[in-house]
Amino acid sequence: QVQLVESGGGLVKAGGSLRLSCSAPGFTFNVYYMSWIRQAPGKGLEWISYISNSGKSTYYADSVRGRFAISRDNAKNSVYLQMDNLRSEDTAVYYCARDRSAFDMWGQGTVVTVSS
Amino acid sequence: QSVLTQPPSVSGAPGQRVTISCTGSDSNIGAGADVHWYQQVPGTAPKLLRSGVPDRFSASKSGTSASLAITGLQVEDEAEYYCQSYDPSLSVPVFGGGTKLTVL
């Protein structure tokens, strides 16, 4: 079954940085937009960023703009999320998802915990 | 606070029918954007609910709102359900806050 695989989560102090990775084997990666979506403990889903199939266009939610950066490497079938100046409110499970207007494929998620 | 509004919870007995509403605005659902629904079982990733799969699930949209109807409720339908649309003016996806379905 085709699946996305996230990695890179962990425990970090406020103000620190993490880089999340998402591997997408098994489909033609370079034709799809990709998004990162997060879910804080006990909360709902929050879209935070997407990147176009070529990587030339990126968008961010207001809550992360200027601190997070999305990128992709089509040769490696991977998408990344560089997270800088992390805050306690960034604590969440981070999912990557294939973006076809609907998010039709999700990874299992990677946990990011920011300690104050 | 989520851009799309959903009831926090709904419930029903096995075999019954429930509906989950999703209220947006002229900036998203009312602008003609598609509405998608996701099912999330605790501890797992959300899963896109494809139209009519299974056929007990059906989605509809009217004006600035959408709804998901589930007929013949089964115990395994117990989960959190999220609606999602798009805001063309901001070029960003938007989610509802989620609805917890309890099968009594």
Can you characterise this structure?
- The complex is a heterodimer of chains A (116) and B (104).
- In chain A, 0% of the residues lie in helices and 53% in strands.
- Chain A has 116 residues and is mainly β.
- With 104 residues, chain B is mainly β.
- In chain B, strands 1, 3, 4, 7, 8 and 9 form a 6-stranded mixed β-sheet that branches.
- In chain B, strand 3 and strand 4 (47-49) form a beta hairpin.
- Chain B is globular.
Topology:
The complex is a heterodimer of chains A (116) and B (104).
Chain A: E1 5-7, E2 10-13, E3 18-23, E4 33-39, E5 45-51, E6 58-60, E7 68-73, E8 78-83, E9 92-100, E10 102-106, E11 110-115
Parallel strand pairs in A: 2-11
Antiparallel strand pairs in A: 1-3, 3-8, 4-5, 4-9, 5-6, 7-8, 9-10, 9-11
Chain B: E1 9-12, E2 18-23, E3 36-40, E4 47-49, E5 57-62, E6 65-70, E7 79-87, E8 92-95, E9 99-103
Parallel strand pairs in B: 1-9
Antiparallel strand pairs in B: 2-6, 3-4, 3-7, 5-6, 7-8, 7-9
Q: Approximately what portion of the residues of chain A adopt beta-strand conformation?
A: over 45%
The Rg value of chain B, from CA coordinates, equals 13 Å
Radius of gyration of chain A: 13 Å
Assembly type of the chains comes to heterodimer
**What is the count of helical runs of chain A?**
0
**Mean pLDDT level of chain B:** 95
Number of helices of chain B: 0
Largest interface (C-beta under 8 Å):
A-B, 19 and 19 residues
Order of helices and strands of chain A: EEEEEEEEEEE
Structural class of the secondary structure composition of chain B?
mainly beta
Give the CA-based shape of chain B. Answer: globular
- The coarse overall form of chain A would be globular
**Which residue ranges of chain A are poorly predicted, with pLDDT under 50 across at least 5 consecutive positions?**
none
Helicity range of the residues of chain B? under 10%
Rounded to the nearest angstrom, the distance between the terminal CA atoms of chain A is 39 Å
What percent of residues of chain B are in strands?
over 45%
